[in-house]
Amino acid sequence: MPIKVSDILNRPHFKRATVIAGQQGLTSKIRWVHVMEVTQIGKLLSGSELILSTGVGWKDQNNTGLSFLQQLIDKKASGLCVELGTYINIIPQSMIKLAEANDFPLIVFQGEVRFIDITQDLNGLLMETHYKMMADLESFSNKLNHLLLSTDSFHKILRLFSKFINSQVAYVRVEGEIDIYPNVSDSEIMSLKDKITECVQNENANTGRKINNQPIKAMGHKFADLVVINSNEEWTEFDSLILDRTATALAQEQLRALYIEEKRKQQEVDWIQKWLNGEHSREEINRYLSAVNPNLDVNGCIVCMCQLEKLDNQLDFTFYSMVFNSVFEQKGFFSLLLFERNQIVFALVNKRNKCNWKERLEDAVTQIRNTKLLNEIFERAVYGVGKMVDQVDQLKESYITAEQTISINQKVGRQSISFYDDLHIYRYLYLLDESNNLQNLVSDYLGSILEFDANNNSQMFETLKIFLEVNGSKKEAASRLFIVRQTLYHRLNKLYELLGEDFMQPEKRLVIELAVYTYAFLHQEN
Predict the structure, then answer these.
(1) How far apart are CA 512 and CA 502, in angstroms?
(2) Spatial distance between the Cα atoms of 435 and 446, rounded to a whole number of angstroms
(3) Per-residue CA distances from 4 to 31, 79, 99, 135, 301 (Å)
(4) d(CA 131, CA 102)
(5) Which among 376, 364, 433, 430 has a CA at the least distance from the CA of 403?
(6) Following DSSP, what letter does each residue of 331-397 receive, concatenated?
């Protein structure tokens, strides 16, 4: 426990000391003892110092003494001890009132005292207390290290921590699950839940009062919060150090558990590949998922494919899998990974409502791209997301559409993440491209336009594209093209000449619009 002003009153050198003001401030902590006779403090103090003075700097000058005391209060000193008899015989009433109003301990010695003996005694006591705290901290750290090498270390660490600080502690996972140590009844858990949730939501809740928390983080990601619910004891610096050491040990335990889990998953690559290829029955898949995650609630499946510029075979895939799975878990997805060529395939099982699955998946990709500990190749990766399927045995369809999304993305412009559901007409163009008929479509319906632009350095293709986009509105087309109406009319006449007078008729217009998108698709123009 830290040394307080009230503690030093029991020391031998304070037998003749009297507290004349600031009784309510006797609980103030003392970090150091300092003799001070100057009246302008400036930057001489850092806070929590107990000041010893003979009053020589402000004797017979009430205003100077009052200013000196106000500076001590402003600097958050622990208290002021004054020797009476040598230079001053009485403390001015104005100083007593100021100290009392600010709960600032004002202590007097009746007669001469040896400040050197007081400072030696108290500073020695402070150093002894600090040494004892560091020794206890080292002992606690050694116990944590021993527990990390044992079985069931997670629960043992939490029980040790709770016993050591003599307080109720809670381990709150990011998914919302709460473990309480020591165990309490269900009714008591409910009464604590609101208090714990408020603390977790506010990471700056370490107010030194009734509740404190420390996020459990590793590799830049938060796994849980360690929450301490104090009973009556005041939160101390030692408690904060113990909390920090425990949080670090729990993070190490979490990493070890995740690493072991990812090693196991790496051995299951063959099974995942067969799942993607549609070689497992629905019963086999459900049985497997129930074995690896008994509480998994399947609400649709998706394949997300990560296209890399180059996949280094020397990378620690287990380490990266730990990061990826942690991120997806926080966003409501259970994930299984497969590394192949320059791609990473994420087989994702949606655990939450389907209505916002795209937003959650985008958030997960953004978090992966912003993780500094990941190799920079992941910052430049392109993600293609297949269609969501309802049943686990339909994942092959999502896998195929994810591959198509990556291919289309490379054609029409590299986006950081693309969803198959949002590609619309490009999905149709991709299928036509597979049959090698797209170039014929462009030649048949846009050949004359493209040839005219090439020979005359004109903008007929752009004019056609904009005119179709605005549904034939001449006013809006001229505005979008930044030309006057007369120029637009001239270009439209040329379009009628090159494409025919009926090019805006529904059936012909539809195929011309398709040809325009096809041209962009083939020439990698967004």
Answers:
(1) 11
(2) 20
(3) 9, 10, 17, 21, 61
(4) 32
(5) 430
(6) TTEEEEEEEETTEEEEEEEE-S-GGGHHHHHHHHHHHHHT-TTS-GGGTT-EEEE---BSSGGGHHH
From the list 123, 135, 114, 106, the residue with the least C-alpha distance to 30 is 123
Integer-rounded Cα Rg, in Å, for the chain is: 37
pLDDT tens readout for residues 239-273: 788 888 888 888 888 888 777 777 766 667 888 88
CA atoms within 13 A on the CB side of 59: 13
Find, among 414, 409, 503, 502, the residue nearest to 465 by Cα. 503
Q: Quickly count: other Cβ atoms within 10 Å of residue 393's Cβ.
A: 18
Residue pair 300/361 in contact by the 8 Å Cβ criterion = no
How many CB atoms are closer than 10 A to CB 57? 16
CATH of 268-422, one of 1.10.10, 3.30.70, 3.30.420, 3.40.50: 3.30.70
410 neighbors 442 (Cβ within 8 angstroms):
no
> What is the CATH topology of the domain spanning 150-258?
Beta-Lactamase (3.30.450)
Closest CA to 412 of 388, 382, 387: 382
Q: What percentage of the chain reaches a pLDDT higher than 70? A: 87
Q: Which of 145, 406, 396, 394 is nearest to 276 (CA)?
A: 396
Whole-structure pTM value: 0.46
Strands 79-84 and 49-53, bridge-based pairing: parallel
Q: Kindly list the domain boundaries of the chain, sorted by start residue.
A: 5-124, 150-258, 268-422, 433-522
Q: What would the two tokens of residue 130 be?
A: 């600090």
What digits encode the pLDDT tens for the residues 45-96? 888 888 888 888 787 777 888 888 888 888 888 889 988 888 888 888 888 8
The CA distance from 102 to 21, in Å, is 10
